């Protein structure tokens, strides 16, 4: 009866027949068609009483008139029965086809082009499921675009390629889902917009059991929105079981504390999705497992079919009293995932067809449907989690961008952080406590530049919400004594009412409050506190004047990059009245990391600003004290400058030993005058004098790398330019730059080399990774020149200033021997290529670099008496560094810096000459013959060092004391001839100590022949006895001892062996 009533409500139907052959159409060849121009009463058909002879829709595909569209929603047997009741005969057709109709494919095609809705309607309502799937696959493989060219364009190919590269299906689905604001719009039903089975109930009724469940699976498996999916489940199950309404609960919470939350509540077949969602939010039902009917089902996984709800003690009648609806029948069933875990409970109520119970068939349909729904729900939940994670990542990225854009002001940064936190975690209040870490002092920066491997504060284990409940308030109070060192200097608070941050310095009352004590505890322990019920946890109500009661708190430490706690963040009261979940803790922890970095960076920026101000003050003081006084400058200005010949400036054998400090400055001025640099570059004479005095003042009083070394290097450069005629290859600006570089190339030298700076991790090594000291020398040079009273380049054009500073920088860096070894091979190649012009930028830089190295080591080419004296100074400076390495680094120094191996110095000097000096001077003298004296002087000195090295190998001692003495041959040649020498071997075991050791004055210069108490070899003793001494005849020990009291005689000396 219901089916007949539904049929009466359908659109107007009429029956037409179509002949199969030339014969008159038979009575049984009839079908039901819809005409758009008939009234509801215009029903025609056939009067045949046999419904079995009705033709199927598949047979009618070639018989239906194209002027009508097909529409049927009931079984054919019912159509035949209606035809009999209406007494409709096949002769009453409105149109018949015969061969005169000339029906062709062209005619059909033109009609379908004019009426595309006909095909769509027939496919949707008459085509089988297999046919629709086959057509869908065909359309997906061969998309047809109207008026599209036969071959795809280049742009189309690029678009297809780009879509395939980014997995367009998944990406488009995800982006569409994110862009949709309404859950219904996010529905992913395969063939139609969001709809339910209500629209297709009759269609599904014609499907067999396997096709029905395939359609049900397709309906839920493609749905990714959890709200839409749950709504579909309830509506579809209601249609299949004739249930009046239903509810769906999803399981939440940890395994040991599971509960149900009403996702959709009291959904009927007419309930819209948005209405159902809002109703569930308003109810906010939360049912623990085991409580009520749904809770019992969730806990036991049993199916409950109740015929009278009010007789079941688990039923809660309060909801009926609230809504005015009477619940009689209840069918409640668990929804499980593939592992068998309960993820929800579905519940349907009352029947609409008058039945007084849910039948076994209803239970079976419900159960089988929920089996597939469980998979769909879990997939939708996973997708929802991925979307939430995506959005949280977007929020965190946006936070990171905002944080790192706001680096200038700490208050603005923290305000932005609290605003983002409240929006992200939906809480009523937010507070940030900042600790006083003495960030403004320089010591804080020292922690930043510490090398890896230093001790870093260990990260502490966060406390979950359940672990937090195990901590008593008394634990926090007991921590006060240990947290005195961790004091909060600033507190930021923000509430929903104001949305503005309140900033204040906390008083003792603020810190002694419950929130203050919790913050201090978290700062001291580094643990996360998630308190769900503050009143229970604190064992008292927490009320603050003018503010809402505190229900829940999430308190977390804020750490910097070194995992040091720099503050504490507090979130107070969730907006929905619940406690903060573990998911909130996870999000807030990631949030706190960004906040910690942002706060730390902002503090560091403020600290850097303060340090920059301090540095500026320090530089001003340094510039004042590093600049020569006006009195000294005026005195030098008024002095007369001797000629270059008086100072021997043109010679490669220049010696500065006899020059006073004032003479060294005058000699420097003379070099500038001889090169005519003062006139050419308009250098103020008083500025030049002050600059020279300032440069001299900024050299430290180390043994070798001091002002006098700089003067010697500059003089050698002057001699190479003038006497060596190298000035023909240089411009005046380059000559100026080279002389300035020579005078400044070792500014502020500390008596230690680059390797020592690296080993000790000095600030210079951190500041400059390569050529450490050379970069520092150049920076010192720039610092002196930047002073107005010392800027000898003040009258240069901008371009000339840039070029001369480039020459100075390149020349100073070239004094690093590491740079020399890098450039030497290239310099040799240029020489071998026959270069003679040297005007290109690269070759000019190479030549200047080689000249700087030649000048820097030019002491090796000085006369021998000067060279071995300079070698003493160099060795003493190296030995001092070796002593520091032993003392500070506990390391064995290299040979040339090891005081204990000082006897090897001659051999090391020979190696230094062979590896560095001779190859350089040889190639320079062969290319530029006017500087041959450098090569010749080096060759002569090598012979001296080689001779000394051989004497050391024979057992003679080059160095006998803490400082280097004169070499052996220097005092052998002028030893008095009339002194009688006696060689005596003493028995130290029997002789008195005072008698054994002759006075130092008596031994004189021969003390250097003694080598640490070691007995000389026989060959050495033989040579000494033959060439130097008159050895007395061997006598008894008493006679030998009798000679000792005569050692004070000036004409007799004893050599102890």
TrEMBL record:
Molecular function GO labels: 3',5'-cyclic-GMP phosphodiesterase activity; metal ion binding
Positions bound to Zn(2+) 2: 746
Keyword vocabulary terms for this entry: cGMP, Hydrolase, Metal-binding, Repeat
Cofactor: binding details: Binds 2 divalent metal cations per subunit. Site 1 may preferentially bind zinc ions, while site 2 has a preference for magnesium and/or manganese ions.
Residue positions of the active site: 705
InterPro entries reported for this sequence: GAF (IPR003018), GAF-like_dom_sf (IPR029016), HD/PDEase_dom (IPR003607), PDEase (IPR023088), PDEase_catalytic_dom (IPR002073), PDEase_catalytic_dom_sf (IPR036971), PDEase_CS (IPR023174)
Record-linked SMART domains: GAF, HDc
Main enzyme class: hydrolase
One example of a Gene Ontology biological process annotation: cGMP metabolic process
Binding site for Zn(2+) 1: 709, 745-746, 856
The family this protein is said to belong to: Belongs to the cyclic nucleotide phosphodiesterase family.
Name by which UniProt lists this protein: Phosphodiesterase
Originating species: Cyphomyrmex costatus
């Amino acid at each position: 009866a219901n089916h007949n009533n539904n049929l009466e409500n359908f659109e107007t139907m009429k029956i037409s027949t179509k002949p199969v052959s030339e014969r008159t159409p038979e009575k049984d060849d009839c079908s039901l068609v819809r005409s758009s121009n008939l009234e509801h009463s215009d029903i025609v058909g056939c009067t045949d009483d046999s419904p079995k002879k009705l033709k199927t829709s598949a047979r009618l595909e070639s018989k239906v008139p194209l002027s009508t569209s097909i529409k049927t929603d009931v079984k054919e047997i019912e159509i035949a029965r209606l035809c009999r009741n209406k007494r409709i005969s096949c002769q009453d057709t409105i149109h018949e086809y015969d061969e005169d109709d000339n029906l062709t494919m062209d005619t059909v095609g033109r009609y379908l082009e004019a009426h595309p809705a006909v095909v769509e309607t027939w496919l949707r309502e008459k085509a089988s499921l297999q046919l629709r799937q086959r057509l869908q696959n065909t359309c997906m493989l061969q998309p047809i675009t109207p008026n599209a060219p036969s071959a795809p364009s280049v742009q189309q190919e690029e678009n297809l390629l780009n879509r395939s590269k980014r997995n367009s299906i998944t990406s488009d689905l995800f982006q569409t889902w994110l862009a949709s604001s309404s859950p219904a719009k996010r529905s992913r039903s395969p063939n139609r917009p969001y709809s339910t089975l209500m629209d297709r109930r009759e269609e599904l009724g014609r499907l067999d059991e396997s096709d029905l469940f395939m359609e049900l699976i397709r309906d839920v498996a493609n749905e990714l929105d959890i709200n839409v999916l749950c709504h579909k489940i309830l509506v579809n199950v209601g249609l299949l079981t004739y249930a009046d309404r239903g509810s769906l609960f999803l399981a939440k919470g940890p395994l040991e504390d599971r509960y149900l939350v009403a996702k959709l509540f009291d959904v009927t077949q007419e309930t819209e999705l948005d209405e159902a969602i809002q109703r569930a939010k308003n109810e906010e039902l939360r049912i623990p497992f085991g409580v009520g009917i749904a809770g019992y089902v969730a806990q036991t996984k049993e199916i409950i079919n109740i015929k009278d709800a009010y007789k079941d003690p688990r039923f809660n009648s309060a909801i009926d009293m609230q809504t005015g609806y009477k619940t009689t029948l209840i069918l409640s069933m668990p929804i499980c995932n593939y592992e068998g875990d309960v993820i929800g409970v579905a519940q349907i109520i009352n029947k609409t067809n008058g039945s007084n119970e849910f039948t076994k068939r209803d239970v079976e349909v419900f159960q089988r449907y929920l089996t597939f729904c469980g998979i769909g729900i879990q997939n939708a939940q996973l997708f929802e989690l991925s979307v939430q994670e995506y959005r949280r990542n977007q929020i965190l990225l946006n936070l990171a961008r905002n944080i790192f854009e706001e680096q200038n002001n700490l208050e603005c940064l923290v305000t932005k952080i609290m605003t983002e936190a409240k929006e992200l975690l939906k809480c009523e209040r937010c507070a940030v406590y900042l600790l006083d870490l003495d960030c403004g002092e320089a010591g804080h920066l020292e922690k930043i530049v510490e090398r890896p491997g230093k001790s870093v504060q260990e990260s502490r284990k966060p406390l979950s919400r359940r672990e937090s409940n195990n901590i008593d308030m008394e634990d926090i109070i007991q921590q006060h004594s240990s947290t005195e060192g961790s004091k909060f200097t600033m507190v930021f608070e923000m509430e929903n009412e104001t949305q503005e941050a309140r900033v204040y310095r906390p008083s003792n009352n603020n810190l002694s409050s419950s929130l203050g004590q919790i913050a201090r505890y978290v700062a001291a322990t580094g643990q996360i506190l998630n308190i769900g019920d503050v009143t229970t946890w604190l064992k008292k109500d927490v009320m603050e004047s003018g503010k809402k009661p505190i229900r829940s708190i999430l308190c977390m430490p804020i750490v910097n990059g070194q995992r040091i706690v720099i503050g504490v963040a507090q979130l107070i009261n969730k907006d929905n009245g619940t406690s903060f979940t573990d998911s909130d803790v996870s999000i807030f922890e990631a949030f706190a990391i960004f906040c910690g970095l942002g706060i730390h960076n902002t503090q560091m920026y403020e600290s850097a600003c303060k340090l920059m101000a301090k540095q500026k003050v320090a530089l001003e003081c340094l510039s004042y004290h590093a600049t020569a006084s006006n009195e000294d400058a005026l005195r030098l200005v008024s002095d007369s400058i001797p000629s270059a010949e008086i100072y021997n400036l043109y010679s490669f054998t220049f010696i500065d030993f006899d020059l006073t400090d004032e003479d060294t400055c005058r000699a420097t001025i003379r070099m500038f005058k001889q090169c005519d640099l003062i006139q050419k570059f308009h250098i103020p004479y008083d500025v030049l004098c002050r600059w020279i005095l300032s440069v001299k003042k900024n050299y430290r009083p180390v043994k070798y790398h001091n002002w006098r070394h700089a003067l010697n290097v500059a003089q050698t450069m002057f001699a190479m330019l003038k006497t060596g005629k190298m000035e023909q290859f240089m411009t005046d600006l380059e000559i100026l730059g080279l002389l300035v570089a020579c005078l400044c190339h070792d500014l502020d030298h500390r008596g230690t080399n680059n390797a020592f700076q690296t080993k000790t991790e000095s600030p210079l090594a951190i500041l400059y990774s390569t050529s450490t000291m050379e970069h520092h020398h150049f920076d010192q040079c720039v610092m002196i020149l930047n002073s107005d009273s010392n800027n000898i380049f003040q009258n240069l054009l901008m371009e000339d200033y840039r070029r001369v500073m480039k020459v100075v920088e390149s020349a100073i860096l070239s004094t690093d021997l590491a740079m020399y070894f890098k450039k030497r091979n290239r310099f040799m190649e240029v020489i071998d290529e026959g270069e003679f012009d040297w005007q290109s930028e690269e070759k000019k830089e190479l030549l200047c670099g080689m000249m700087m190295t030649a000048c820097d080591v030019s002491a090796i080419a000085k006369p021998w008496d000067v060279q071995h004296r300079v070698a003493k100074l160099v060795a003493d400076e190296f030995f001092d560094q070796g002593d520091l390495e032993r003392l500070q680094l506990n390391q064995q120094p290299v040979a040339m810096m090891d005081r204990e191996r000082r006897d090897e110095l001659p051999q090391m000097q020979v190696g230094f000459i062979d590896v560095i000096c001779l190859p350089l001077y040889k190639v320079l003298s062969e290319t530029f013959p006017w500087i041959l004296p450098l090569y010749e002087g080096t060759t002569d000195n090598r012979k001296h060092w080689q001779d000394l090295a051989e004497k050391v190998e024979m057992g003679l001692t080059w160095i006998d004391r803490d400082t280097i003495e004169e070499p052996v041959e220097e005092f052998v040649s002028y030893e008095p001839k009339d002194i009688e020498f006696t060689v005596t071997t003493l028995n130290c075991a029997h002789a008195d100590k005072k008698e054994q050791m002759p006075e130092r004055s008596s031994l004189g210069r021969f003390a250097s022949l003694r080598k640490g108490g070691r007995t000389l070899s026989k060959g050495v003793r033989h040579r000494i006895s033959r060439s130097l001494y008159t050895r007395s005849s061997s006598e008894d020990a008493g006679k030998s001892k009798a000679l000792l009291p005569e050692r004070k005689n000036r004409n007799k000396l004893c050599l102890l062996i």
